[in-house]
Amino acid sequence: RRCTDIICCVIFIVVILGYIALGVVAWVHGDPRKVIYPTDSYGQFCGQRDTLNENKTILFYFNILKCASPVVLINLQCPTTQLCVSKCPDRFATYIDVQASYRYRPDQWNYFRQFCKPGFNNPRKSVAQVLRDEDCPSMIIPSRPFLKRCFPDFSTKNGVLTVANQTTFKDGRGKTRNVTDLREAANGINNVLDARSVGIKIFEDYAISWYWILIGLFIAMMLSLLFLVLLRFTAGVLFWIFIFGVIGIIGYGIWHCYWEYDHLKGIPGSDLTVYDIGFQTDFKVYLQLRQTWLAFMIILCGVEVIIILMLIFLRNRIRIAIALLKEGSRAIGYIMSTLFYPIITFLLIAICISYWAVTAVFLATSGEPVYKVMANQTLCKYANLTCDPETFNTTNVTKLCPGAQCTFAFYGGESLYHKYIFIFQFANAFVFLWLVNFAIALGQCTLAGAFASYYWAYRKPADIPLWPLFSSFGRAIRYHTGSLAFGALILAIVQLIRVILEYLDHKLKGTQNSFTRFLLCCLKCCFWCLEKFLKFINRNAYIMIAIYGKNFCTSAKEAFFLLMRNVVRVAVLDKVTDFLLFLGKILVAGGVGVLAFFFFTQRIPVFAQEVPMLNYYWVPLLTVIIGSYLVAHGFFSVYAMCVDTLFLCFCEDLERNDGSTAKPYFMSASLHRILGKKKLSPKKA
């Protein structure tokens, strides 16, 4: 063997080093506190330790009516002053009322001014000036914190939306408004809060049932192993039972259609045709016609004949497929370590996801606070221009635009780094897809190399090399990193294009341009098909790389033409394998799911006292079912890779060898008997 696709290998290593450098730069410039903590109008974090806002963990909006929706409140800046407070308001109040009564009710003023700007304590200042300078909010309404922000405390009373059991409130500007005016500013908050309550209960259920969930997943693992072992003996039986079951069901359908057809004979109106009665919304009308049942019978007869003919003409290929399935079970039995390799792939992908997510967060939080002029007057020419809060009061902006303020807008910057943040995020996503596909490719090539060493061992298991899985992993890393990276790069490019198309489709959903939507739909469909095709080609190319050690393009070409020369066998093997493995997944997930259902619903008397008290028994139940399916999928993916590898080796064996002493077959005796070749040559001692 020699190193393949060296140029791509070098590029891949350089990209990884650049990716690490990008992560370091993002770590230096980024600040995740900008995501964890809300930011007030001065760019200060709410609840940050060792600051004046340490005990003020919640963000308060002066005029929440200016905020269109919670999405704006969380992701963007609402065009109103925002302050960090220790708690949300719990009552209705307006600045006008508080100012009028502060002399004889100072407690109301002391409560209200905690929602004013820090240091403001001048109730004598005119209302107009206070509202112009936004020293205090014009009103406060009962609120509760959500995502560390104060939102109106909505509730429903007799189907009517209320806040603190009131349907109206004073806006502090001389108007009485309905609480429905707050709906846009806090749309859907109650539903999300209810979801958070449900989330807490689900977390509690996980906390007290995790032990039993792990036991359920362990049982799923053992059942998956047992199913793979039994496939060596039951693959053919399971397949033929299913096939004859389908034939029997279709045969019953034909008989039932004939019975209905004969039963309707002589009934008035049953001899009408579908054309005579036209289109009817009630489908039962068509079932009263003999013609309908005759059509059903003809269709079912056609399907029955097609299935029987396929079984007759493809019987030998089906036997080969079943034999390869049995051979795959035997190969895994000799190389049991392959069943646990998906754990390595999972860890590699988990590392990629974690690094991508952390880098994305640090990139998104890079930058310095940017302040902009916020003016109450729509004609202010300085509105939305950047400003410096320290020198803002000395400029002419406040004179030309009365009430204008220099408030925090977002995090950004004017440096070269900040200008290309979007490009860095794009690169982060692309390299992430490349690395994930490389991790998958490495796993497929490693498993293919291990199973190929089994097939090409003349005397099984004596000629199987020691530690075949580790040897295959070493070869893949040492010689074929470039080839694996090349295949992963092609797939990553297509996946990135699909992500961009999905983004464009999401953005253009509201448009009325039918041609644009149609074009996007066609592009999405084409690239979906292209991705599926590339995954198929890459998978078989990695198998050829593991067998012969050639570069990616050569391996992909040879694998493709080899499969095309055996296209019928490929189709039969693929469908037989898919059926049996899907059946195995359903059996494992269903069996463990039924057991978990009886356990968590206390229907197993022996373990009734051991069942934990749960808020929702379906939480651990669904976790066990989904987890069992994923466990089975992990084990069966190894089995599918084994069968695909053995199939390519089998096709190569048929084309390169003829069963003679000089060129003996490496296939098993069962495959040899199915092919009807001449007797195997004596194996060398």
TrEMBL record:
The keyword Transmembrane applies. It is a multi-pass membrane protein. The keyword Glycoprotein applies. GO terms for cellular component: plasma membrane. GO terms for molecular function: antiporter activity. Keywords: Antiport, Cell membrane, Glycoprotein, Membrane, Transmembrane, Transmembrane helix, Transport. It catalyses: choline(out) + n H(+)(in) = choline(in) + n H(+)(out). Its main location: membrane. It is found in: Cell membrane. InterPro entries: Choline_transptr-like. The chain crosses the membrane at residues 7-28, 210-230, 237-255, 293-314, 334-358, 431-458, 479-501, 579-600, 621-641. Choline/H+ antiporter. Belongs to the CTL (choline transporter-like) family. PANTHER family: CHOLINE TRANSPORTER-LIKE (SLC FAMILY 44) (PTHR12385), CHOLINE TRANSPORTER-LIKE PROTEIN 5 (PTHR12385:SF42). This is Choline transporter-like protein. It comes from Certhia familiaris (Eurasian treecreeper). The lineage of its organism: Eukaryota, Metazoa, Chordata, Craniata, Vertebrata.
